[in-house]
Amino acid sequence: MIVFLWILLCSILISLILSTASLKLIVKDIRIENIDSAVSILKILLCENEDKLKLEFLDYIRLKISLKLTIFNGIQIFSLNFDEKRLKKIMLKQLEKEIKNNKDIKEDKKKAKEISKKIIPELYFRKSKLQIEIGTDDAAVTAIMTSVISIIIAIVLPYITDLKNYKNYYYKVTPIYLKQNVFFLQFSCIITSRLIHIIKIMCSKKNKAL
After folding, report:
1. Which tens digits make up the pLDDT trace of 109-157?
2. Is 70 exceeded by the pLDDT of residue 51?
């Protein structure tokens, strides 16, 4: 009887933990500091390079992010911190491991893409802050680019945020009229998701594979 009660108590506790557990991604700072860095990132990501070479885009950004697991709406279980160097090191290590084990990287990327499509709707942007400064050697082009970027942000924002709490979401696109190419981007946000939702998605994907 005592054993049964102990098992029941543990089951209830585990259920409570899983139902209240949340993953929180805190993007403290993502920064692209100049036009040369922005151009280099675009070239790397758009060209058909090997996956290993594509990771070089991390050399041109500055970032600080934290991943936290909390339960009961605030009790922190663990926290992981990353900067651009540590993130690149982890991603390279994972890629080299897959190559060493002769894994079908294209197939893995396809599976990861399918899982991402299901996980993204479960993500909730609690806060975001975006600042962009842009300038070209032509004042008219600068004005047009500033307007286009602002319009795109305004269109996308309602789909990824809760506008009832609009004060939590801030963006500013500033034109720089110095008759030279200028680009600066700084972004921060907090994204959360219920752990149970992610577990369900991962389990359903695994069951289909079987």
Report:
1. 677 777 777 777 778 888 899 999 999 989 999 999 999 999 999 888 8
2. no
Rg (C-alpha) for the chain, rounded Å, is 21
pTM of the model: 0.79
**What are the start-end ranges of the E strands in the chain?**
22-32, 62-71, 75-83, 124-135, 169-175, 182-194
Order the strands of the 22-32 sheet from edge to edge: 75-83, 62-71, 22-32, 182-194, 124-135, 169-175
* Amino acid at site 206: K
Q: Where are the beta strands (DSSP E) in 37-97?
A: 62-71, 75-83
Residues spanned by the domain of 69: 2-209
Model pLDDT for residues 165-199, shown as the tens digit of each residue: 778 889 999 999 988 889 999 999 998 888 887 87
Provide the 3-class DSSP secondary structure of residue 202.
helix
| In contact, 78 and 69? CB cutoff 8 Å | yes
Structure tokens at 189: 């946000």
The domain tally of the chain equals 1
The dihedrals phi and psi of 63, each to the nearest 5 degrees, come to -145, 150
Alpha-carbon gap, residue 49 to 35, rounded angstroms: 22
State whether residue 166 is helix, strand or coil. Answer: helix
C-alpha pair distances (Å), 155 with each of 150, 152, 160: 9, 5, 10
